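Following up on my earlier message about nicotinamide-adenine-dinucleotide. Here are the inputs again, as you asked, copied directly from the submission form:
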Amino acid sequence: MKDAFLGKIVDHSAVVAVVGLGYVGLPLALRFAECGFKVVGIDTDAERVAQLARGETYIERYGRDRIKGVLKKTFFPTTAFSEISGVDAILICVPTPLGPKREPDLSYVRAAADAMLPYLHSGQLISLESTTYPGTTEEEIVPRVKSKNLIPGKNIFVCFSPEREDPGNEKFPTHAIPKVLGGTTAACLEAGQALYGAAIERVVAVSSTRTAEMVKLLENVHRAVNIGLANEMKIICDAMGIDVHEVIRAAATKPFGFVPYWPGPGLGGHCIPIDPFYLAWKARAYGVHTRFIELAGEINSNMPHWVLRQPLPRPRRCLQEKRRRPARVTGAGADAAARGRGRDDRVQRPARARDPPPGARRGSGAQRSSERGAAAQAGRGVGGYGSRFI
Ligand SMILES: NC(=O)c1ccc[n+]([C@@H]2O[C@H](COP(=O)([O-])OP(=O)(O)OC[C@H]3O[C@@H](n4cnc5c(N)ncnc54)[C@H](O)[C@@H]3O)[C@@H](O)[C@H]2O)c1
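Thanks, got it. Here's what our run produced:
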């Protein structure tokens, strides 16, 4: 069984289904299609599928040229889950938002898994890519597969491989981002390594699906906590009349042991405001209270309010500042503008106040105004830490 699967990877006859063609699924589907695999892209959003089928795109940075380059050659978008019966590998990239009480909402994962169930058969590989808490693959995917008398490692392969896509980051396209991978069994891992290895430069194997699930959460908790620290430093520095950006810039000259994170009112992306709560929720089931996560959440969610509480600069001074240098936008808006060159993705970028130019005065009129603008934007769009920002 495994050898047959591996053989199809080697000769590129394996057919890959990507379920969920959003910011994660679409580039992944295009990558496999560009590597010469036949890819069936399945999405429940008929309008998105129709757009792709016309060679159009709803994510500007994954442009028409890329889609047209593979469309009807190796890339076939559809809403039909029945296509699953003809594929060898299924990569699930559906949303994992939070519910109203900041609890994990796995309804999309469950809906996708249920929809594909009638069409599953032996010899296939299923890899969940959606960000989620440790245990999801074991608890949600494996039992469904087993209900079809398919046994992971024996006649089907089940993996988890967290997506690390950074939409718009041209330095790290899909294939250049190392792919962490855990398998339900050793055979599942081997099959997954072969599949991803055919399209991604480096596959990082870990010992289980739960470990792979935790890797992604650690990455995002790490960011959330450090952004929280940077935000607290900003408040402390402001109270003391110190320029926090100057402090961070100078600290970042240390060649080891310091990673700069920048304060700002916006906290966003798909991951940072959501994923830590997946871990917090699961940890509670083990009787563990995730203090760092809660504290970072509290500090970060208060930043828009803190910025809005800062006194407005006198209009004249603000104007003078504006004449002296172009207005800067900090945080969410700036990041999106700088990186996305447009906001087709509706993604609030994580909080990263842009570095003011050397010599810029702390809390200058323009800077304060722009921080308030970004704060208002963040506040409007998000409704606090823990909301889904798209
Ligand atoms: N966007 C990022 O930067 C990023 C980065 C890393 C990880 N992730 C994670 O990847 C996962 C997907 O995120 P995304 O940003 O691509 O989401 P998205 O909202 O951009 O896209 C999800 C797509 O899935 C489709 N969909 C929803 N339910 C479906 C179903 N039952 N069957 C088939 N298609 C369905 C939607 O129509 C949509 O096109 C999430 O778990 C997210 O946390 C996102």
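One observation from looking it over: Strands lie at 15-19, 38-42, 75-78, 89-92, 125-128, 157-160, 179-183, 203-206. Hope that helps, and feel free to reply on this thread.
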